[in-house]
Protein 1
Amino acid sequence: MSRSLIDILSDLDAAASASARVPALTAELRAWHSAQHEALGQPAAPAAPAPGPSPAGPAASALPPASGSAVANVRALVAAGAAAPGARGADGRLVITQYGGPTDRTPDAATQAGMGNRGNRLTATSVALSPDLIAALALHGGETIAVTVDSRDYPLGTYDDTTGDHQHPNTIDTYDPTDALGQDTFLATVPAGRWTLRSSGGTQYAPAAAPAAAPTPSPAPSAGLTRAAAIARARSLVGQPITYELTKEPPGPLSDCSGFVDWCFGIDRNRTGENTDAMVADAHGPRKYYALVTGPARPGDAYVYPSPGPGHYGHTGLISEVDADGVPTMIIDCSSGNPQGRAIQEHGPGVFVENHAIIVRAVALVD
């Protein structure tokens, strides 16, 4: 025997603070309403649409609730070959990372306190999404997220947080408090054109591939490199479509900080191995490529500091402007902290001052 309308409404009101019971009670209310119409010989009224955002793309079929753990779901995605180890890129690829564990190098205060967007509700199924994905899917919190790769659905978890690094788009950060996926450097990617992200709210998003245009660097330096030529070479890449990636260097679309600075001075980093640690050691020792500057800095010198410890990286940048006392006021660097897809920028030297960087001069300079 079905319950009375009063009983159902009473329970629905009492469950307002227990959202897990609301859908079941709502369904029971609709069933009661339908039964009353049938008893009167009238057609049942159509069910009201579920509240939530309008679809961001074609309507997606209903997704089951998130189950298992986000870590296990990501492992299944990789094991199936739907995602593979790779680097970030400004070409529409989906990037899956992990956060919240002991090796998380960029934890935000909210994550450290276990505070997600929905207020201290991070669980085994929690994932964080980059702001662009949150907007594209019109998410409000608590939706189940799945990715469709090559027409097959893979559950990921529940949207409970926002990525701490807001500059990298198309990113899903897996809540992994025990580093079960490995470490903070874990990256798995799905190429653009192969993935569609879906939410239980009925929205979906699939960006089109947008390959970056080839950068247009200045020509390689000839013998007798001047400071002005090195700075012009550096500025020729400022704002160009270049993505930060370790061990890469111009003139391709990927570079890291030392690869960029070495390139400005005409140093083949692939041959010399002059990364930040090697630059510091060279400047204090053999001075084969770099020499330590002990006096006022000049435009065309470089800032550099080494890796502060395991799991961390040093940094370097070309000094482009100094004040009357020879104190650097502007630098050009390639950094993951610069806008995604435009990793080479000219700005103030704050990061180098904070990390007590040394100033070096490229031995190749003739002035």
Protein 2
Amino acid sequence: MRRRERAAEVVVFIALAGILANVAIPAARDASLAGSARAILEEVADIEEISRAYQTREGRYPAHGAWGKTPVELESEGKKLDFKNRHAELRWRNWGLLGGLDMPLRAVHVRSDHPVLLEAVMSGYKGRVIMLRNDQLALVVD
């Protein structure tokens, strides 16, 4: 009799551990992604500030940058910019004309495989956001 009770306790324990794991693991991942989204938004604010200072001084914005790389023009601006995040990559874009519109556009692109992260960045950004693809956003600077 005691052996059956012990076996039942083990089964209940395993079931509870599985339920807790199913709740805790996604919550921990979402918390990590939320932290990454905040870090991205802070980095984008720094990129905006430094690129505007560059534009004021040089009369133009920096040229395009590659994914995960700080544009050469912004490397010497005094603050280290981080275009790579644990869950995403950034790149600076400077379009002369967008889609034939007479409208120059500067933006920071964010690329990530995590839709939750992209949603958090979209909802936290104060400016215009353009959804480029399922895994990319453009946060419009100017």
Protein 3
Amino acid sequence: MSKRRMSWLAVVVLTAVLIAAAAYWSPHAPPHAVPPRVDKVRIVHAHPEVVVSMVRALFEAERFMRSDPEAALAIVSRRVGAEEEGLGPIWKKFDFSVGMSQSSLSTIEDVARWAMARQYVTARPMPNFLSNLYLAALLAVRPERVTVIR
């Protein structure tokens, strides 16, 4: 894959990750910052090959970020309209890697508790997020990256 295409992939992936992370972790995020719910079950199960391709693209973006972190930072800073100097210090603290670990699942549960405690969502019994994860594509591409206890 060309470096130019790899750069574009990194922009798309990283921008989505940064926006989602900011929206879910910031108590000041505007409601429109959180992406609308998509009927993921229907789409994913109807097109598993597309999901596998997306997972492969995520791994390509991960490789690009590791091989050229300065270029990846420049791409993301342009895409989100932030100065590289401002993003740089926090950029180095992130581990941009693709996978689903037990700690990731625990983080999802923590975010749900946080959102319920602050009444961003209606409080209810904790859902079973594990049953909502679609791990087949990740298992097909890089099974060692799935460390969730299932």
